[in-house]
Amino acid sequence: MKIFIRNTYNVRPYHQQAVVVMGNFDGVHRGHQKLVQQARAIADQKQRPLLAILFEPQPKEYQCPNTESPPARLFNLREKYLALRALKVDYFLCLRFDHHLQKKTAGEFIRDILLDTLHIKHIVLTKQQCFGYKRTGNLSLLKQYAKQHHFNVSEVDLATEQGRIISSSTIRKLLKTGQLTLAETALGKPYTIIGRVIRGAGLGYVKFGVATANINHKRRHMVLNGVYTVQVQLENGHHYWGVANVGCCPTLTAGRQCRLEVHLFDFCANLYGQLLTIRFIKKLRDEKRFDSPEALHQQILCDLQTARLTFHFPA
Predict the structure, then answer these.
(1) Rg of the chain taking only CA atoms, in angstroms
(2) Quick one: three-class SS letters along 171-227?
(3) Contact indicator for 55, 62 with CB cutoff of 8 Å
(4) Which residues contact 200 (CB under 8 A, 6 or more apart)?
(5) Which residues contact 237 (CB under 8 A, 6 or more apart)?
(6) Percent of the chain having pLDDT more than 70?
């Protein structure tokens, strides 16, 4: 039985007649959680599965010209999947967002995907959600189709914090400005990146004696930049405190690729190939270019000492 479905031609009868939610679900924040939880309750009541429709790449990533940078992702596809599975979503339909899907009108999207492919029984969305070419599809249009095609539509109020709507764009701004506590409140959990440990150049250990795990974060752009205290969960479930650096390492390399490197306190073992869950706790400083590797080394030692004091570890 397939849980994760790529594109409509892989949809099987057991995926159909579900309660449906759809969106980018970037960050799976408290607004997304509220939407999915209410849809889950409806699915349980109707004894139907809950199916989430996602888009890959995210529409703004596809639509963004090469000369511009799309908004940095909060979550990659794996992270969205795991977070939504934790909310008891049964099935996932991942639609490739390309020229064909971009040009599909809202009516065509409803007929081709929701009706002819999924035979939906119920769809749950917020009043502000839009879909289809030029974002002309909305709650009102779905209700018109629902009368003709005998499915139900439910509206969920937007989640707010101190009177402000919780959104992925707001959380990006909070993370970029180092306001991790406020971002955690909006997300309902610490901001987390999941990635597999890959081989790097080994510069941290060779030059400074500080072993770091290089993480394959699978993002074109990172919303974070700088040095952070982190809590890291290994595949065996064990947790370690540590320090993470997010950036392009300007002192040692001339590259533009954004890297995520993690140093774990009081840990000495081979992590290559392991999938790590990295929770960002506090920002220590921005990334910067130092005049020399020696100056960078001194700053790294200072960062490690500051982080240990934060966690009440002996320096």
Answers:
(1) 22
(2) HHHHHHCCCHHHHHHHHCCCCEEEEEEECCCCHHHHHHCCCCEEEECCCCCECCCEE
(3) no
(4) 212, 214, 259, 261
(5) none
(6) 91
Phi, psi angle pair for 257, to nearest 5°: -70, 130
Whole-structure pTM value: 0.91
Nearest to 242 by CA among 297, 310, 298, 288: 310
How do the domains of the chain map onto residue ranges? 4-165, 190-310
pLDDT of residue 5: 96
Where do we find the tokens 């990295």? 278
Distance CA(268)–CA(10), nearest Å, equals 44
Q: Token pair 């064909």 is at which residue?
A: 100
Distance of CA 36 to the CA centre of its chain: 16
Q: Which fold has domain 190-310?
A: Elongation Factor Tu (Ef-tu); domain 3 (2.40.30)
CA–CA distance, 184 with 123 (Å, rounded to integer): 28
User: How far is 266 from 44, CA to CA, in rounded Å?
Assistant: 46
Task: State the Cα–Cα distance between residues 128 and 183, nearest whole angstrom.
Answer: 22
- Burial class from Cβ neighbours inside 10 Å (0-12, 13-18, 19+) for residue 29 reads buried
Q: Which CATH architecture has domain 4-165?
A: 3-Layer(aba) Sandwich (3.40)
DSSP 59-116: HHHHHS-TTSPPPPBSS-HHHHHHHHHHTT--EEEEEE-SHHHHT--HHHHIIIIIIT
Percent of the chain that is helix, strand, coil (3-state, to 5): 35, 25, 40
Tokens matching residue 255: 């590259």
Q: With H, G, I as helix, E, B as strand and everything else as coil, classify residue 299.
A: helix
pLDDT in tens, 263-276: 999 888 889 999 99
Helix (H, G, I), strand (E, B) or coil at 246: strand
